[in-house]
Amino acid sequence: MDLLRFTTAGSVDDGKSTLIGRLLYDSKSIFEDQLEAIEETSKRRGDGHVDLALLTDGLKAEREQGITIDVAYRYFATPKRKFIIADTPGHIQYTRNMVTGASTANLAIILIDARKGVIEQTKRHSFIANLLRIQHVVVAVNKMDLVDYSEEVYEKIIKDYQEFASRLDNIVDITPIPISALNGDNVVDKSTSMPWYQGPSLLYHLEHVYVGGEENHVDARFPVQWVIRPQSDEWHDFRGYAGRVAGGVFKAGDEITVLPSGFTSQIKAIHTADGNIDEAFAPQSVTLTLTDEIDISRGDMIVKKNNPPQSSQDLEAMICWFSNKPMASRAKVILRHTSREMQAIVSEVKYLVDINTLHKVEGAGTFAMNDVGRITLRTAQPVIHDSYRRNRQTGSFILVDPGTNETVAAGMII
Ligand SMILES: Nc1nc2c(ncn2[C@@H]2O[C@H](COP(=O)(O)OP(=O)(O)OP(=O)(O)O)[C@@H](O)[C@H]2O)c(=O)[nH]1
């Protein structure tokens, strides 16, 4: 069945937990026992209604104890589609979590409190969605019940939002929806309180939005994760390369090149857990065997012969700084890119981006937590890559502090 991955972003108390709870509840994706448990808790606490935010409270409780949970993934399904929600905490310091949650999403729901309108967080979240090339954004104006379901209030917010978003050129589709997560207006069922709104409910939109064609099916890329050489006699000739297709299509018989060595060969067969297949495409996980015995190890990339990626020791990239320690000057880092890892140094900080104005701030020299900007990286070995624009997998990386093993930044290659 078709799968949609989406992320939710909003400030604290905009109603994210309530919205996710409402989606699960009204689409009947929660289990009876879960429902009984939250009904009981709500009754015990004397709430007049069933508090749907309790469905996602596991995350909240852990957060309150000071445990850093970056992103919680939730699954639900309707007869039309399967969904994976990346649920990220809304506090200002958690931009990095949104980057993590959004990095695999097809769509972002940006929540706005109808009483507050477009605020800095809204802009920050939209900017990140754009940076990560999430093409579909739903602007969910929540708590419409608290502004008397006013069309004027809603229209004003959407106008403000569109003014800002017109400068975000990667977002191709913005769908505004007025909702009340608490009362369920326009979440799963169409609201009767807002007859002026002609569009779909949120769930209807999530079920029907077309997100095909986002994988790169042109440039064949296969980062090798494991070399498989079984020890048994029966299999002693077998040498397979396991990994996940990061782009394009591989077929038995295809002429391939292995990078960085440059050796060439042909695909003999494509194995999966369910038997051999004739062709593999992103994001399938497969094991390839080749017609020649050549030296391949983890971190190598198998590509089609006439369609090589780029290779360079100097990478231009946009990064989001995650660490609460500011970036040191000429910071030494470990670059993790596809299945490869190597030393690198931040050779230049070009500029930071002011997310409110989208202006470049030059001469900053360093990054603080949540800062976004452009750098040049010098790597110890050539990095075999594509631009993030062409391929989200082979165009993205993370930076790790070699001393503490902390993930200090996520980056997108320009
Ligand atoms: N009136 C009204 N209240 C709402 C609505 N949606 C959420 N709320 C209330 O707003 C408060 C915050 O909602 P949550 O769902 O916990 O907010 P959140 O964004 O998940 O907050 P964090 O998890 O702390 O980031 C709760 O008291 C909800 O009951 C709505 O549509 N209308």
UniProtKB/TrEMBL annotation:
Top-level lineage group: Bacteria
The keyword ATP-binding belongs to this UniProt entry's keyword annotation: yes
PANTHER family found in the cross-reference section: TRANSLATION FACTOR (PTHR23115)
UniProt keyword terms in alphabetical order: ATP-binding, GTP-binding, Nucleotide-binding, Nucleotidyltransferase, Transferase
Membrane-crossing residue ranges in chain numbering: none
Protein EC: 2.7.7.4
InterPro entries the UniProt entry points to: CysN_GTP-bd, CysN_II, CysN_NoDQ_III, G_TR_CS, GTP-eEF1A_C, P-loop_NTPase, Small_GTP-bd, SO4_adenylTrfase_lsu
Protein name: sulfate adenylyltransferase
NCBIfam families per UniProt: CysN, PRK05124.1, small_GTP
Organism: Luteolibacter arcticus
A Pfam family of this chain: GTP-eEF1A_C
Domain spans labelled Tr-type G: 1-217
Keyword Secreted: no
